[in-house]
Amino acid sequence: GRNGRPSHLRTFRDGWFTLRLFLLCSPDWLFLLPGIVLALFGLLGGVLSYSAVHVGPATLGVHSLLVSSLLLMIGTQCCFLGIFAHTFALVSGLRPAGSFIVGFYRFFNLERALAGAAVVSLFGLYLIAGVFLKWRAEGFGPLVYEHTLRSVIPGVTLVALSAQVAFSSFMVSILSLESK
Asked: In angstroms, rounded to a whole number, what is the distance separating the alpha carbons of residues 147 and 29?
């Protein structure tokens, strides 16, 4: 009992510290799950927007494609942050090797990731170059944004994602180095 003394607990501050501790100790809930959900929504929205699908009274256009691109990039970055956190915890001895990180490292190596990033980047550059060549063939006149952005947005997104994958793969490789 407190014997009539006021509580020393601060509801918001103490609740935040507890939630913060739970999130810092669980990279799956902090990074991986939100990252996977965002990336899947971005990918699905991108495919539907690229095809100008009608959802009820709305037509998904280039604005939806741009938002989907953002979701895909943020989701991908969150997934890599989860992998960084898992790798750090494993190498530091903070956590035992879980099935996720063991499965990831069974598949992952830097060279494979860089090769995949290069292929994705080339496809993105192909989409951008297609718009540029068409624009050049038409004498560099005004562009019809509704049509050109359907290729430029995915092209730019793929190039950005490939850079993200390449640099993040180097970071994963650095984190997974064993100290001797």
From this structure: 39
**Residues 78-119 pLDDT 10s:** 999 999 999 998 888 888 888 888 899 999 999 999 999 999
Which among 29, 35, 62, 31 has a CA at the least distance from the CA of 161? 35
Half-sphere exposure of 170 (CA within 13 A, CB side): 6
User: How does DSSP classify residue 29?
Assistant: I
Nearest to 179 by CA among 96, 93, 76: 93
Structure pTM?
A: 0.87
130-147 tens-digit pLDDT: 999 999 999 999 999 989
Q: Which residue has the tokens 């830097």?
A: 110
- Give all strands (DSSP E) within the chain, no chain letters: 54-55, 58-59
Spatial separation of the C-alpha atoms in residues 43 and 151, rounded to whole Å: 15
